[in-house]
Amino acid sequence: MEQPTPIELKRQISENVSRSRKILIALPTAVTIDRLCGAYALHAVLKKLGKEVTLASSASFLPSAGFLSAMPEVQANISSDRTTVIQVTTAHAQLEELSYESGSDVVKIFLKPRDGQFLPEDVSVSYNTEPYDLIITVGAHTLEDLGSLYTDNSPLFFERPKINIDDDPANEYFGTVNVVEVTAAAVSEIIYSVIRSIESAVTDEPIATGLLAGIVANTHSFQDPATTPQTFTTASDLIANGAKQQDVIQHLFKTKEFSLLKLWGRALARIKTDTGHSLLYSQLTVADFEKTGETDERMGDVLKELLENVSGFQSVALMGETSSGSKLMLASLPHVRLEAIAAKISETFTPPVNIFGLYQVVALNLSGVSLSQVEQLLVDAVKTT
Q1: 3-state per-residue secondary structure call for 200-242
Q2: What is the pLDDT of residues 39-79, one digit of tens each?
Q3: What's the first-to-final CA gap in the chain, in angstroms?
Q4: Which of 7, 143, 214, 315 has its CA 20 to 30 A from that of 370?
């Protein structure tokens, strides 16, 4: 398939955005700081243009981005309400009167013609899939990467134009417009060029800061070998337009929220290891969340801290007590049969995602299962896999 030139791509992006009123920005189930920051910047630009914008992801956990000003809500699901449209052509008859009769399990619709007769082939049924007339995906290789956001609303994704933004060569080019740049060092770097297709420059300080944060996070402060001269040029332009580089570095690498540190400390105090099976794990109770002012949504951040500060283990797990049971997050190195382990614990779990360096992560919500039961299930699954 022949790819459009940069000028054609810019025109396609601009045309799709300009003729859209309600836009959905969809993130995959694996949400990184880079993807979240890029989506944040795109959301802000589209709002400035007067669009109605929804940011959504069915991810089981989101990275902390409290340093971004006016961060919009990331909705876990979108409305899948669809109005059934019954269309009747008037080629054979003109309508004089419409009425209906509602029974316990049936609705009858009566069409009285003024002349002629309505035929069965004159009637068709369709769905009005409002409210979105454009979908922008950020960092999804396939539509399936969007999880339940896609599976619960698949007609919407098939019937609406899509701008597909990604930096991975595994991308399946499922969009109406595909902005896939495999040489880019970050999705935020690509979104910078997408925004410039809509506006000539990125001059808004929060937007510039969000894009710079995504690039800095994904390149580990420009230390990643994937960082290119174009990456530095983009970062330089963002800084020149108000991006707060020192604030980004401070928040991403030097500052930890005190409540998160307290929660991490409680997890550290309960660490257990199974050296024979290269497993390290810990748990957090409802009391831990209450006393630190945090929720189980921060388990991803605590797991990340564990992964960054321990070594020598092939699998690292964190269990959390919830109001309905327990939640388990399990991270393993690529050679570990992570899905096989997860399947022994529960039939339902999120697909493995790579968001913590080399580690792949799955999340399991276990209704009616206590922490002690989860611990036993985990240990047994690791031992027998």
Answers
A1: CCCCCHHHHHHHHHHHHHHCCCCCCCCCCHHHHHHHHHHHHCC
A2: 999 999 999 999 999 999 998 778 877 778 888 989 988 86
A3: 43
A4: 315
Let me know if 286 is exposed, middle or buried by CB neighbors in 10 A (0-12, 13-18, 19+): middle
| Closest by CA position to 313, among listed 303, 323, 298 | 303
Task: Give the integer Cα–Cα distance in Å for 293 and 198.
Answer: 41
pLDDT digit string, tens, across residues 305-362:
888 788 889 999 999 999 889 999 999 998 999 999 999 999 888 878 776 667 889 9
In angstroms, what is the C-alpha Rg of the chain?
Answer: 25
